[in-house]
Amino acid sequence: MQATTPPTAGRPRSDLNATVFAATLRSVRELGYAGATMDRIATAAGVAKTTLYRRWPSKGALIADCLLDAFGPVPLTGADRGEVVASAIRWIAAKISAPGAGAAFAGVFSDAINDPSLREILSKRFQEPYRVAVQDALGEPDDRVLLLIDVVTGTLLHRMGMTGEPMADADVEAMIDMVLRTFG
Amino acid sequence: MQATTPPTAGRPRSDLNATVFAATLRSVRELGYAGATMDRIATAAGVAKTTLYRRWPSKGALIADCLLDAFGPVPLTGADRGEVVASAIRWIAAKISAPGAGAAFAGVFSDAINDPSLREILSKRFQEPYRVAVQDALGEPDDRVLLLIDVVTGTLLHRMGMTGEPMADADVEAMIDMVLRTFG
DNA sequence: ACCATTACGCTACTGCGAGTAGCGCAATTA
DNA sequence: TAATTGCGCTACTCGCAGTAGCGTAATGGT
Fold first, then answer.
1. Domains in chain B, CATH or no CATH each
2. What is the pLDDT of residues A21-60, one digit of tens each?
3. Window A:41-80, CB contacts with B under 8 Å
């Protein structure tokens, strides 16, 4: 999300990302996605709203970056393929179940429906790295990996959207069983 | 969505649902979910905006009702369980792929994230009838059927949200293969 | 020391869409 | 004929995303 040309002269940017990300997640957790307005996030971070817009082009982009920072890389460990897939699914399920994170994810995702530039960010900056990592680990063709990601993430988000709550562990395990019959 | 007490006196409601639903789907198809404002839908239907709000409590509720009308019941036919599941999945995939319908569905779904009353409508009026129908046809326990619905619908919507396009037939078939290993 | 340059905070705005209020009129039933 | 309810219309309120412009702080270059 940083500018293409990092400037050499002038006042350097202060270290605000950590503060802003923390305030963003806290706001979404307490107020929901729609309730976490840019004004509130700015206030919660002790920062001017205009500063947010100097760094991120939109609310969706800010929250996407925030999630990217909060999630980090997928762990792809396990004795065999099945365990690799299962542990990766448990990891993303846990990330989405973290308070605030699920609502934030679903919110960004929904904004992306009406904002192609945000969809670009989401698919290129978010999905793509995970797809490459999984593909390297599993050696599946890319369309299969994309389907795998659609199934896992889509299922978790759909449950979240319908019930307002993250998916229970038992259902996560049922989904893993199902996926493993194909990708295990 | 109609009032709990259909009144006996006074001017009866005119037959506007078909006109409004058609105008709604057309607006979403041409302008996207966010672009299809209540003002535009009203104008396109040749109806006052206040009339829309007399019948539906929110934009999301209107579009949910519109989709309910456009989708109709799931066909649950087929020689064996596998064919029943496969044809049902192809049916919902086709419905979501219809121009406008996918964007409308995804839009309502995203509004529901921040609107519990809309979530209620979506899960009770939309998901529940389909769940019951599938459950009767397959004889699976309800949590399994709910998972099946989450997987199928979630996957289709996730693909739609990430790419802006409905899922290609080949991928739908791949998803069917995968699901049938568990539910076939 | 002194620019030029860039960042930050602040106040004040624009634009737009969801949802509402109240009026006059139309179409029913009792 | 009176009461009641629906419709169209105009005109709002409210809230949020995003923007403009100013004064000031912090840096590098000369």
1. 17-58 (1.10.10.60), 67-183 (1.10.357.10)
2. 999 999 999 999 999 999 999 999 999 999 999 999 999 9
3. none
